[in-house]
From TrEMBL:
Residues 1-19 form the signal peptide. The keyword Membrane does not apply. Residues 272-291 have a biased composition (Basic and acidic residues). Residues 253-301 are annotated as: Disordered. This is Apple domain-containing protein. Keywords: Signal. It holds the Pfam family PAN_1.
Length: 421
């Protein structure tokens, strides 16, 4: 079982035997994960090699620092470098490699040291960390999926409610129309039957009276007339009652229909307000997107100084060689100021490569709100290399740089984003 765990950790290339998140936390946050206190220390495994780390220390005499975003990345650089046995890494994402196995450390609070050891990895502990990391990732995916399903369910629910309301209203109107038609037909049928029965009864009685005696004709005639009058009155009563019932049914139907129409109008008004609210939200998102697109420089003309051939031709050298007579440039709608022969610090540097000119770096910086400015060295610039100063405290500190012109440091920065001194 131990061999299987060790093989899994070796194939995945990373494990920890100390802090639960030291060698698995990405970016600058890994420093705090490794060093919750200035005296923290521990061990972690990189590609089957156990590294010991100690917080608050720095190994002097190492190679020039290279960029490493985390403790894990610095340890990986040392592991794949044949002559490396030790290294130092800072919270500012710098990594310095050493060939010595046991160099003398210096106490520096913002650094930690790494040393290769001959220890065997602890596969069970490393596997536990991998399992914990997989559980965190699974929980995150589960939360995302639940949120998506909830949104889809709410949308489906609204759709089904709207459909049910429409169907109910349609069926209600259909039922009312059918009931009114049936009531009118039944009323007419009842009236016809009543009149037919009355006429039949009258004729039978009249025939009987004639058969009994002609002498009783007057009496029979009188009686018939009386009965006919009564029948006519009954028919009139029936017609009046039927008309009253029809009028009452129609009035009730109209009242119910009016109520339902008012309810539908209210629902339509609510839906219209909801639609207007959603439309206003979408229009605001569109405007924000357009504002963001505008801030990135799209459709904005650069200033004349940023188009001066004396400044932009071979800008790695010309911007600070004396041939460019401008100190202020507007690129992508953002104003920049030039400051030559100075080294810059207090910002987080990003190394940019394969840029065609300083103005290419400046244009890219203009579109990134966190970018305070761009620095360059002429001898590196001809290889397309510049470095962007990203915001940390919103200020940049400069010191004079004196040396060969091709090795001088220069700066072009955004005054509205950074204070420079």
């Amino acid at each position: 079982m131990h061999f299987t765990f060790y093989l899994l950790v070796t194939l995945l290339g990373v494990g920890t035997t100390a802090s639960a998140t030291c060698f698995t936390t990405a970016g600058p946050a890994s420093f705090k994960a490794c060093c919750p206190t200035p005296q923290s220390s521990g061990k972690g495994t990189i590609s089957g090699v156990v590294f010991k780390y100690t917080c608050g220390q720095f190994f002097n005499g190492g190679e020039s620092p290279i960029s490493a975003s985390s403790v894990k990345e610095c340890a990986e650089e040392c592991q794949k470098t044949p002559h490396c046995n030790s290294a130092s890494w800072s919270a500012k994402q710098k990594c310095s490699l050493l060939g010595e196995k046991y160099p003398a450390p210096m106490k520096v609070g913002s650094w930690l040291t790494l040393q290769k050891t001959a220890e065997e990895p602890d596969p069970e502990q490393d596997c536990k960390e991998l399992v914990d990391a997989a559980k965190r990732e699974a929980e995150s995916k589960c939360t995302t999926e639940k949120d998506r399903l909830q949104r889809e369910g709410e949308t489906q629910c609204r759709t089904e409610k709207d459909t049910a309301l429409t169907n109910a209203n349609t069926q209600c109107q259909k039922d009312k129309d059918t009931a009114l038609t049936n009531a009118n037909a039944q009323c007419q049928k009842d009236k016809d039957a009543a009149l037919a029965n009355a006429n039949s009864q009258c004729a039978a009685e009249k025939d009987k009276l004639r058969a009994e005696a002609d002498t009783d004709a007057q009496q029979a005639q009188s009686q018939c007339t009386t009965e006919k009058d009564q029948l006519r009155q009954q028919a009139d009563t029936v017609r009046t009652q039927c008309q009253s019932e029809k009028d009452t049914a129609l009035t009730n139907s109209n009242s119910q229909c009016t109520t339902e129409k008012d309810q539908l109008r209210q629902q339509l008004a609510d839906a219209a307000r909801q639609r207007d609210t959603e439309r206003d939200g979408l229009q605001k998102q569109l405007k924000d997107a357009q504002d963001k697109a505008g801030a990135s420089g799209g459709g904005i003309t650069d200033s004349a100084s940023a188009q001066d051939s004396a400044c932009i031709n071979n800008s790695w050298n010309s911007l600070c060689s004396g041939s460019c007579g401008h100190d202020t440039f507007t690129v992508g709608g953002v104003e920049f100021k030039r400051k030559c022969n100075v080294s810059t610090r207090d910002g987080r540097e990003e190394q940019w490569y394969d840029r065609s000119s300083v103005m290419d770096c400046v244009r890219e910086c203009a579109g990134i709100k966190a970018c305070l400015g761009v620095g360059w060295i002429a001898s590196q610039g001809v290889k397309g290399h510049c470095h962007a100063h990203m915001t940390v405290s919103g200020r940049l500190r400069t010191t004079p740089s004196r040396g060969h012109p091709l090795n001088e440091h220069h700066l072009i920065y955004v005054p509205t984003r950074a204070s420079v001194w």
